[in-house]
C-alpha cells in the first residue's frame, strides 16, 4: 500500500518545480513539465492481511474480546453462591474449665471440664430464600453477558462500517484522479492550439491537490477505524486488515411496531430489569421471614473429677418480635419495599428508552436506505450522464472548464454519498439490532411466524 506522506511530498515538489519552470522559461514551457511530472497513481488500493468478513469479525470478537471474557468469568463466580447459601454455618466446638481453685495449680482439683458443640439453625425456609436471591444474582450476571455481547457486536459493526467507508472513499477519490488526468490531457491539447488559457491547464493540478488532501483525511479515518476494530478483536492495533465485504441495500424491514414489541420481549436490558424486580421481591420475602425465630442447639460432655460425669444440652430460640427489636425488621421491610418499587419504576423507564432507541434507529436505517436507493437509481446515473455530456461539450468548446470540474465534483460527491448512505445504513442497523436485542434476520423470522 502506498504511503500518503511520500505521495504528498511528490505532489508538492512537482508543483513547485512546475511553477519555478513557468516563471523562468515562460508560460508555454512551464505547463508541459508540470503536466508531465504530476502523475499521481489512480490504481485501487491493495491491503495486506487476510480478507475479513463482518460475520468473521463478530465471531472472533465474541470469542476473544477481553471485556466480554471478563464478564463471563464473573458469571462463573456468581454461580458458586447459591450452593453456599443452602448449607448451614459451621458448628462451634469449645471447652471450658469450671471452678479451678485459685490456691491450686493441680488440674485434678478442678470441679469439672465441659466439652461442647454448638450449631445455629436458621428458621424454616430462610436458607432457601437466600439461595433464591443468589440464583437471581446468577441470572443478573448472565444478563450482563448478553448485554455486553450485544455491545461488542454493535461496536464491531460500527467499526467495520467506518473502515469500509473510509477505504471506499479512497478508491472513489482515486478513480476521480484518473478522470482528472484525462481532463488534463484534453486541456493540454487545447492549450497547445491556443483554445484555452494557461489557467485552465493548471486547474486540474489544483483539483488533484485537493483530492490528495481528501485522501489523507480518509486514510486517517481508516487507520483509526482499523485500530478500533483490531482492539475489539483482541489484536494489536496496528495489525493489517485485508479486504472487506461491501455492504448491500437490505430488503424490507419489519414494521417499527413489530420491532418495538420484540424489543420489549427480548431486549437484554429489559430482561435484566425483570430479574432485578424478581430479586427485589425475593429479598422482600426473605426480610419478612426474619420475623420467624432462629434456633441454637448445643450439646456437650461434662468431665467431673470428683463426681460422676454427665451429658449436657441446650436449646436457644431468638425472639425477633421483641418490642425493642421489631422496629429493625420493620425498617428493613420498608427498605426492601422501596427497592422493589424503584426497580419497577426503572423498568418502566427502560422500556420507554428502548422504544425510543428502536424508533430512532429504525428511522435512521429507513432514511439511509432511501438515500442509497435514490442515489443508486437516480442521482448517480444522472451525474455520470451529465459529466459525459460536459466532457464531450468541453472538447468542442461548448462548456467551459469550470463547468466540467463542477460536474466531476458532483459525480465524486454522489458516489461518496452513496457509500456513506450504505455505511450509515449498516451502522443504523447495528444500533437497531442492539435496541431490539437480536439479529434482524432472526427478528424477521419471528415476525413472519407470528403473522402466519
How would you portray this structure in words?
It is built from twelve helices and four strands. With 452 residues, it is α+β, with helices and mostly antiparallel strands. It folds into two domains: 1-35; 40-451, Outer membrane efflux proteins (OEP) (Up-down Bundle). It has a four-stranded antiparallel β-sheet, with no helix packed on it. Helix 2 (27-37) packs parallel to helix 7 (198-232) and helix 6 runs antiparallel to helix 7. It is elongated, with a radius of gyration of 38 Å. The relative contact order is 0.12. Residues 1-40 have low confidence and may be disordered.
Supply database-style keywords:
about 450 residues, alpha+beta, Outer membrane efflux proteins (OEP), 2 domains, about 10% strand
- Structural class label: alpha+beta
Spell out the CATH superfamily of the largest domain: Outer membrane efflux proteins (OEP)
CATH class type of the largest domain: Mainly Alpha
Number of helices: 12
Largest sheet: 4 strands, antiparallel
CATH T-level topology of the largest domain: Outer membrane efflux proteins (OEP)
Q: How confident overall, as mean pLDDT?
A: 84
Q: Do you know the CATH architecture of the largest domain? A: Up-down Bundle
Q: Order of strands across the biggest sheet?
A: 1-2-3-4
Span from first to last CA?
52 Å
Series of secondary-structure elements, N-terminal to C-terminal: HHHHHEEHHHHEEHHH
- Show unreliable segments: 1-40
Q: Number of DSSP strands?
A: 4
Helix content: 55-70%
Net shape: elongated
Amino acid at each position: 500500500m502506498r504511503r500518503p506522506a511520500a505521495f504528498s511530498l511528490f505532489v508538492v515538489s512537482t508543483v513547485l518545480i512546475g511553477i519555478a519552470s513557468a516563471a523562468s522559461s515562460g508560460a508555454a514551457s512551464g505547463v508541459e513539465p508540470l503536466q508531465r511530472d504530476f502523475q499521481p497513481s489512480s490504481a485501487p488500493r491493495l491491503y495486506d492481511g487476510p480478507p475479513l468478513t463482518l460475520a468473521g469479525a463478530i465471531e472472533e470478537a465474541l470469542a476473544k474480546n477481553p471485556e466480554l471474557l471478563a464478564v463471563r468469568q464473573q458469571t462463573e463466580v456468581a454461580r458458586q453462591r447459591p450452593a453456599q447459601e443452602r448449607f448451614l454455618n459451621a458448628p462451634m466446638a469449645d471447652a471450658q474449665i469450671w471452678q479451678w481453685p485459685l490456691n491450686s495449680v493441680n488440674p485434678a482439683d478442678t470441679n469439672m471440664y465441659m466439652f461442647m458443640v454448638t450449631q445455629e439453625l436458621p428458621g424454616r425456609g430462610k436458607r432457601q430464600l437466600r439461595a433464591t436471591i443468589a440464583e437471581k444474582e446468577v441470572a443478573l450476571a448472565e444478563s450482563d453477558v448478553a448485554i455486553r455481547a450485544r455491545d461488542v457486536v454493535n461496536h464491531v459493526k460500527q467499526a467495520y462500517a467506518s473502515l469500509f467507508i473510509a477505504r471506499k472513499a479512497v478508491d472513489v477519490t482515486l478513480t476521480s484522479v484518473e478522470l482528472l488526468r484525462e481532463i488534463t490531457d484534453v486541456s493540454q491539447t487545447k492549450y497547445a492550439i491556443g483554445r484555452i488559457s494557461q489557467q485552465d491547464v493548471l486547474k486540474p493540478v489544483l483539483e488533484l491537490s485537493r483530492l490528495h488532501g481528501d485522501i489523507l483525511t480518509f486514510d486517517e479515518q481508516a487507520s483509526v477505524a482499523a485500530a478500533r476494530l483490531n482492539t475489539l478483536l483482541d489484536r494489536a492495533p496496528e495489525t493489517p486488515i485485508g479486504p472487506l465485504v461491501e455492504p448491500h441495500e437490505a430488503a424490507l424491514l419489519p414494521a417499527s411496531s413489530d420491532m418495538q414489541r420484540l424489543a420489549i420481549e427480548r431486549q437484554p436490558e429489559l430482561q435484566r430489569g425483570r430479574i432485578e424486580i424478581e430479586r427485589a421481591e425475593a429479598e422482600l420475602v426473605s426480610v419478612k421471614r426474619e420475623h420467624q425465630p432462629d434456633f441454637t442447639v448445643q450439646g456437650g460432655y461434662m468431665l467431673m473429677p470428683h463426681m460422676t460425669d454427665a451429658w449436657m444440652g441446650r436449646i436457644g430460640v431468638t425472639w425477633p418480635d421483641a418490642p425493642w427489636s421489631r422496629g429493625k425488621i420493620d425498617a428493613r421491610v420498608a427498605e426492601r419495599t422501596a427497592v422493589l418499587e424503584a426497580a419497577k419504576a426503572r423498568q418502566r423507564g427502560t422500556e420507554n428508552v428502548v422504544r425510543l432507541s428502536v424508533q430512532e434507529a429504525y428511522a435512521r436505517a429507513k432514511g439511509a436506505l432511501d438515500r442509497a436507493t435514490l442515489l443508486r437509481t437516480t442521482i448517480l446515473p444522472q451525474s455520470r450522464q451529465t459529466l459525459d455530456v460536459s466532457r464531450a461539450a468541453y472538447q468542442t468548446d461548448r462548456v467551459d472548464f469550470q463547468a466540467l470540474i463542477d460536474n466531476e465534483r458532483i459525480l465524486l460527491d454522489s458516489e461518496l454519498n452513496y457509500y456513506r448512505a450504505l455505511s450509515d445504513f449498516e451502522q443504523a442497523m447495528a444500533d437497531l439490532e442492539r435496541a431490539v436485542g437480536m439479529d434482524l434476520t432472526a427478528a424477521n423470522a419471528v415476525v413472519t411466524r407470528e403473522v402466519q
